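Final report, closing paragraph on structural work. Over the funding period we assembled a curated collection of sequence-structure pairs, and we close with a single example.
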Amino acid sequence: MHPVLFRIGGFTLYSYGLMLLLAFLIGIYMTERRAKRRGIDPKKISDLALWILIGAVIGSRLLYVALHWEEFSSDPIEIIAFWRGGLAGLMLFGGFLGGFLSGLLYVKKQRLPLLKMMDLVAPALAFGLFLVRIGCFLNGCCFGKPSSFGIIFPPHCAAGYTFPGERLHPTQLYTSLAGLIIFFTLLRIEKRKPRPGALFGTYLILHAGFRFGIDFIRYYENSANLWTNQIISLALVAVGIMLVLRRVGKSKR
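Its predicted structure, as stored:
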């Protein structure tokens, strides 16, 4: 594992941070190109991305705090010091929900077509999942349970010192591969010109459905995290199904 790629003086480049940055920048570039082809001002996408980023940070932190309140009850000011917890102080689904809500506010404020905007960002979200989980693997976090096959993580990362010398499911790589498959699946479906909202709904079904399944072999320190993520996964699958099956009249894309 390579949680730190290199250090130059006081600057440290972390592998997870790099992959997260790449996911964000590539996602903006990808979505701006797609927006331009659909007659939407690309500048709106960069503004939307900023709103989503802020909402994602807040949402991921709040969900972590809600599930680990014992860590903050004696010193609530630590809630806003999200950087001190590192990756362990944030939760992916909280970030997804926070980013979605803040993005929704921006779209409503700008009076942009909601379903079309959701469809625009869906492939970027899937590709971002592919990149970010590679960062998780390099960092040695978000790992799986012991297995008869798998990877022995080095002792300097979370997976290694939690299960020293044991083979673990590389759930980060499983999820990264799933993100890439979802990305190409969405591009293929898009060529069939599905009704507005269906592409984003498909993303929710595939991503959340996969997350529900992979969590059975992913390691969690406590069952609360597991069941919270799986309940959210099932709820997102239900929302995705409603978006895919919704009955609407003919609409221009």
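Confidence is low (pLDDT under 50) at residues 249-253. Residues 113-253 form one domain. We thank the funder for supporting this effort.
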